Amino acid sequence: xxxxxxxxxxxxxxxxxxxxxxxxxxxxxxxxxxxxxxxxxxxxxxxxxxxxxxxxxxxxxxxxxxxxxxxxxxxxxxxxxxxxxxxxxxxxxxxxxxxxxxxxxxxxxxxxxxxxxxxxxxxxxxxxxxxxxxxxxxxxxxxxxxxxxxxxxxxxxxxxxxxxxxxxxxxxxxxxxxxxxxxxxxxxxxxxxxxxxxxxxxxxxxxxxxxxxxxxxxxxxxxxxxxxxxxxxxxxxxxxxxxxxxxxxxxxxxxxxxxxxxxxxxxxxxxxxxxxxxxxxxxxxxxxxxxxxxxxxxxxxxxxxxxxxxxxxxxxxxxxxxxxxxxxxxxxxxxxxxxxxxxxxxxxxxxxxxx
Length: 355
Ligand code: PMP
Fold this sequence. Notes:
Radius of gyration: 21 Å
EC number: 2.6.1.9
CATH superfamily of the largest domain: Type I PLP-dependent aspartate aminotransferase-like (Major domain)
Bound molecules: 4'-deoxy-4'-aminopyridoxal-5'-phosphate
Keywords: Amino-acid biosynthesis, Aminotransferase, Histidine biosynthesis, Pyridoxal phosphate, Transferase
CATH architecture of the largest domain: 3-Layer(aba) Sandwich
Catalytic activity: L-histidinol phosphate + 2-oxoglutarate = 3-(imidazol-4-yl)-2-oxopropyl phosphate + L-glutamate
Pathway: Amino-acid biosynthesis; L-histidine biosynthesis; L-histidine from 5-phospho-alpha-D-ribose 1-diphosphate: step 7/9
Cofactor: pyridoxal 5'-phosphate
C-alpha cells in the first residue's frame, strides 16, 4: 500500500492463478493446461514467424486470424473480436458491455475472475447460488439485471448446460448482454456460437489455451453481433491497437488448420477423463459430471486440503479452493494417461487402498 495508490487500487483483490512451480518432474494437474503440446503445424508456423519479420508491427486488425475463426465457426469477420487470452477479452467485455446501472448476475461458485473485474471497473454484481446439484438454472436468474455471465461448462464444477438451456437465458433477458464463457467447451459441451445469428444479446468467449494447447501464446476471442464486437473494438483501440503479436497470430491461425490433431488430442483427453472418473469413484470420491478437461471431486471421508498436501508430497499438484461450500472439493486437471495413472497410484497410497 502506498499513498500513490488510487482508492480503486486500494480496494482490489487481484485474481491469483494456480501456481506455476519451477520444479521439474511434477505431475502438474492444477491449472487445466492441455497435457499434449500444440500441433506440430503451430510450432512450424511460430518458427517461421520468428525468422520472418519481428521488427514489423503486427496487423492491428488480426484479419488473418479473424478469417480463420470466421471460416471455422461459420460466422462473418465482423462478428469476431480477438485478444490476448480470453482473460483480456473478458476484461474488454466487462468495460464495454457490462457497466450498467443494474447489477451483473453470475453464479456464487464460478470463475473467480468475474468479481475481480467488477471491482476493477466498478460494476455492481449479485451472486446467484448454484442449485443443490451445483447447477446453473435459468429460473434463478429471473431478476432485473444489467447482464449475465457464466462459463459453460462452469468452472470449477465442470458441469455443462445444453444449448437449449443457454437459449432460455437469451430469450428471458432480451435487454441484457448474456456472456457465455466457453473456455472448456471442446471437451464434450455444446457451443452456442450458432445462436449468435438469432440473438443479438449473445456474446460467446472462447480460448486457445485449453483444447488448442496454447496457454503460453495467450489467444482468446469473442463471437457476437457486429454491434457488440464494435463496442469491444472501441475499447481495445483506446487501449492498445496491437492486441496480438506476430507469433501469437501465426500460431493461432495454424492451430485451426490442423483439425486432425485437435480431434485426436481432445478425444484422448475425454477418454482419459472417463477412465479417471471411474477410478476416482472406486477410491471413494464423489465426482461431479464433467464436460471439461478437469474433474471436481470430494472424498467421502478425507479432508480435501489434507489430500492436496499429501498429493503434493508425492509430487502431484491439484487445485484446492478455500471457499465456503467447495472447500472439501479438489479440482483435478485431466493429464496424459501416465499422469492420471501417477495420480491414482498416489491416491491409492494415501488412502491405503490396494494397488
Ligand atoms: N474462463 C475460464 C472459465 C477459465 O477457467 C479460464 C482459465 N483460467 C479463462 C477464462 C481464461 O483463459 P485464458 O486467459 O488462458 O484464455
